[in-house]
Structures are given as C-alpha cells and as structure tokens.
Amino acid sequence: MLSNIATVLAGLIGAGIIFMGARAFWEPQAAVGFGIPDTPTEDRSFHAWLYVKGVRDIASGLFLFILLVGGTTHLLGWFLLAACAIPVGDAVIVLRSNGPKTAVYGIHGATAVVMLAISTLLLIT
Question: To the nearest 10°, the Cα dihedral for 19, 25, 29, 32?
Fold first, then answer.
C-alpha cells in the first residue's frame, strides 16, 4: 500500500519537473520564482540558459517515468534519493545569491524533504 502511494507521488514529482521545464519555454519570467534576486528575465542570453535548464528538467522528469514503468520500486527509490541533491543544490545556490529564505526553505528545501520522504518509502517497502 505504501509503495503504491509513494509510486504515485514519484510520478507527480516527475510530472511537476516536466511541467517546470516546459514552462521555461513559454513563460521565462517564471524563473523569478526560483529565488535568485535580479533574475534578468528580459535578457535573451538568460533565455538561452533557461532553455538549457528546461531541457534538463524535462529529461529528469522523463527519467522518473522510465523508472516508474520499467524499474523496481527500490531502483526508483535510489534514483529519487540521488535526485534530492538537485533541490538541495538549488537551495544552496539561492542562499548564496542572497535570495529570499522562503525560496531557500519553502520551495527548494521543502522539495528536497518531500523527495527524501518518498524515496524512503520506496526503499523500505
């Protein structure tokens, strides 16, 4: 039962990551929500970097779906555990950029905690 719930939650994480990646292409100003102050959303060079991030987010979400379909619960759990490094790294980047603590802890930190909880459920079941 817990593994089913954790699997569904992992799928929602994958869908969310794909959505955020795709959003970079149609709404670059959404990057402000990442938490880095003075994000130059009108700068075309910034758009190019944002598109790079978008492609990587989409691929990361697809990796989760591949593991959902073809992998084991434990493999998905290990992958999600390793992927926790991404929001932790994002939190450190925002913190070092003097970004808002709400983004550091409320967005990136909370994402890492949720991913850690889901990966733990997948690994213990």
Answer: 50
